[in-house]
């Protein structure tokens, strides 16, 4: 239900549209609304404000500005950046017009308001008259009267298409590039990503993957055995909260849930350190490491620390996990969480870049985990913004970084020890190809097949761990276990 609000939107724009930014947003329940509303040209904070009295939805207003901030921060750069190579040209042109410039020239906040209206009408099946009315009101308050007229015209045209069952959609026809652009629009993914997956997986599997990415994600909880909490204890607490859940098929400390995470948070289960939110795919990477009491382990890119904490809980108070990370703030949080989970006695935090740390340190450990920075293409169901943050050119830079980190991590492995390389990516260039390149540079390492550590369904033909989102209903992840010669 709409509320009478005071909405002060202070927006500024440089000559270049990409520098447009939101400077201020204030919402309260006073009856007056103050807006900056120049009629033409770029929005300028020096314009005088005018007072209006309109009813708008606070949730819709906040959503529009948040979307704009995400976009201006780069989350949707692949769609809107004039230098981008994504699917921006076809994003909404299929519904209203086929002139790509219509939407790329549109003010960012206006574009977000229209996007919200489209989503509400097409996906949420809300009453069209209400959606049109409230988004028109928001455009008039946040921008100007003419912007409201444009929203009215566009959304009414969409409603007409919906009523006549004539919503235009791209067709899967033409060459590979044309089909990829159509799939990018139909399934809301960047064109470069669609083409990459179609090449590696085939079109049918690529479509299934995109459908998975667009579905509501499920979450897993790990019972904190380091604090003496068993999975049975966690299940009892979930039953009391009446949170639907099921036991993990693969890991004894994990439960899986589709809904109810907010109830778990509000009940204080995370705050008390009784459990952690951790996907089973990440838990299986720890299974590949196979931490044993008394071992010394290095976690090379440890923060935020999910795998660090899990490994520490498996040491039964004997041994040490050296958590190395370049981000001091995130390491501090990890250290605090380790105390909460009562595993701080077997965790040492080290603020360093693993590349310089390994060069300047004689430490040699039983096991080294490199959970490398990666594209994150395996976790898009939980990170919807990530698909638009990534660009094709990022992949080459990531591969170079991964090679450098692998070389550095290998220096910390003692003779006869183990190096585990993992990512949350499903891309072979970040996974199998990085291992192949590493083994050519380091003949003293060899593949240690992971069949003893994870269920057979996760073992690839080359002896690596791989979780497939479509097949396993988990985040996508990869891990290779490498043994160093004695």
Automatic annotation (TrEMBL):
Protein name per Swiss-Prot or TrEMBL: SAM-dependent MTase RsmB/NOP-type domain-containing protein
Region described as Disordered: spans on this chain: 30-49
Active site feature: 424
Matches recorded under Pfam families: Methyltr_RsmB-F (PF01189), NusB (PF01029), RsmF-B_ferredox (PF22458)
GO function terms (MF aspect): RNA binding; RNA methyltransferase activity
Species, as recorded: Prunus yedoensis var. nudiflora
GO CC, any one term: cytoplasm
Record domain SAM-dependent MTase RsmB/NOP-type: where: 209-485
Subcellular location: Cytoplasm
Source organism superkingdom: Eukaryota
GO BP, sorted A to Z: regulation of DNA-templated transcription; RNA methylation; rRNA processing
Binding sites annotated in the UniProt record for S-adenosyl-L-methionine: 301-307, 325, 353, 371
Keyword annotations of the record: Cytoplasm, Methyltransferase, RNA-binding, rRNA processing, S-adenosyl-L-methionine, Transferase
């Amino acid at each position: 239900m709409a509320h009478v609000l005071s909405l002060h939107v202070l927006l500024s724009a440089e000559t270049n549209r990409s520098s447009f930014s939101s400077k201020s947003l204030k919402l309260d329940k006073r009856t007056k609304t103050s807006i900056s509303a120049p009629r033409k040209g770029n929005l300028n904070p020096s314009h005088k404000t005018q007072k209006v009295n309109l009813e708008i939805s606070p949730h819709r207003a906040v959503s529009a500005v948040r979307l704009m901030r995400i976009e201006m921060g780069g989350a949707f750069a692949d769609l809107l950046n004039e230098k981008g190579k994504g699917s921006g040209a076809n994003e909404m042109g299929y519904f209203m017009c086929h002139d790509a410039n219509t939407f790329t020239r549109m003010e960012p906040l206006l574009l977000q308001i229209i996007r919200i209206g489209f989503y509400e009408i097409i996906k949420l099946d809300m009453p069209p008259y209400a959606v049109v009315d409230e988004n028109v009101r928001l455009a008039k308050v946040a921008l100007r009267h003419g912007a409201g007229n444009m929203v009215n015209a566009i959304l009414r045209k969409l409603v007409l298409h919906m009523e006549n069952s004539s919503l235009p959609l791209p067709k899967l026809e033409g060459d590979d590039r044309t089909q990829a652009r159509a799939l990018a629009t139909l399934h809301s993914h960047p064109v470069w990503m669609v083409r990459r997956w179609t090449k590696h997986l085939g079109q049918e599997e690529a479509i299934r993957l995109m459908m998975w990415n667009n579905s509501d994600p499920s979450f897993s909880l790990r019972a904190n055995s380091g604090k003496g909490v068993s999975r049975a204890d966690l299940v009892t607490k979930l039953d009391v909260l009446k949170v639907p859940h099921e036991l993990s098929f693969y890991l004894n400390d994990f439960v899986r849930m589709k809904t109810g995470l907010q109830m778990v948070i509000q009940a204080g289960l995370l705050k008390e350190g009784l459990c952690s939110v951790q996907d089973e795919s990440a838990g299986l990477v720890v299974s590949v490491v196979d931490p044993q009491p008394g071992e010394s382990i290095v976690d090379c890119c440890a923060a935020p620390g999910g795998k660090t904490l899990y490994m520490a809980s498996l040491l039964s108070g004997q041994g040490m996990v050296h958590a190395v990370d370049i981000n001091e703030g995130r390491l501090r949080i990890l250290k605090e969480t380790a105390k909460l989970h009562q595993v701080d006695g077997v965790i040492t935090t080290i603020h360093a870049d693993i590349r310089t740390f390994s060069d300047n340190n004689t430490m040699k450990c039983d096991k080294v985990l490199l959970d490398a920075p990666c594209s994150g293409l395996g976790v898009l169901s939980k990170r919807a913004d990530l698909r638009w943050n990534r660009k094709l050119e990022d992949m080459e830079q990531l591969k170079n970084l991964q090679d450098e980190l692998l070389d550095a991590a290998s220096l910390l492995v003692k003779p006869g020890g183990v190096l585990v390389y993992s990512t949350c990516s499903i891309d072979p260039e970040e996974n199998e190809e990085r291992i192949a390149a590493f083994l050519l540079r380091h003949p003293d390492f060899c593949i240690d097949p992971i069949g003893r550590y994870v269920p057979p369904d996760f073992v690839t033909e080359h002896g690596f761990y791989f979780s497939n989102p479509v097949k396993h209903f988990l985040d996508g992840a990869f891990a290779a276990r490498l043994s160093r010669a004695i």
